[in-house]
Amino acid sequence: MTTYVLVPGMWVGGWAWRDVTDRLRAAGHDVYPVTLTGLGERTHLGGVGTGLDTHITDVVNVILHEDLRDVVLVGHSYAGTVLPGVADRVPDRIATQVYVDSAPTADGESHFGIHPAEAIEGMAGHVREHGNGWRLPAPDFAEMAAHPGGEGLTGEQCRLIQPRTSDHPFATVTEPLALTGSDTSAHRRIVIACNEFRGLAEAGIGRYQQAAAALEVHHLATGHWPMFTAPQELTDLLDSAAKA
Q1: Domains of the chain
Q2: Tens of pLDDT along 212-230?
Q3: Taking the complete model, does pTM exceed 0.90, yes or no?
Q4: In contact, 136 and 206? CB cutoff 8 Å
Q5: Alpha carbon distance 161, 143 (integer Å)
């Protein structure tokens, strides 16, 4: 039996992992899907002060209070910025870090640090106008499905996903990651590369290009939301990651 902690990306809660969670549990694994503060069923707990450190603490507290060890820590998309912070705080509890269509963010960088300053300011304006000054409104999943990142999403899936999305606390993606320097060298680090990771790595985007060159990479031919579009294939890769 393997212990998995599953961390979602932007705009969704732990519910997004359901199809993967059910499959992993059916295979006999212990699985903890996390909902980060301000999202999913914890939407009401978010506020102006909800930042990256809040989300790191959310995951750390699940690991500590459930007394989890030898954890396979899995993060999708934005969670590539959360995972290094969690591993830094509880390095002795983590066995493997898995980045699903994501890459590890470096110390001192923010999740949105890969974007030009003018793009971030544009999003900040959107937050001020439509997100009460602290939330980034969720995208339209039906529109997303028409682009490469949404490859594989069906109309029915979009109709089910959209009402369960939450506007995302904006400070979490602009706050720089602050690591203490804990030794995480013993952790196995794996990337499950979907379309977005491959595109960003090929475009020479720093953290993605570096991860493609330095980490163990497994390819999954689907869009940016494999927990919805390819749950069995994603489950198989996670199961293999634990056994290797």
Answers
A1: 3-243 (3.40.50.1820)
A2: 999 999 999 999 999 999 9
A3: yes
A4: no
A5: 13
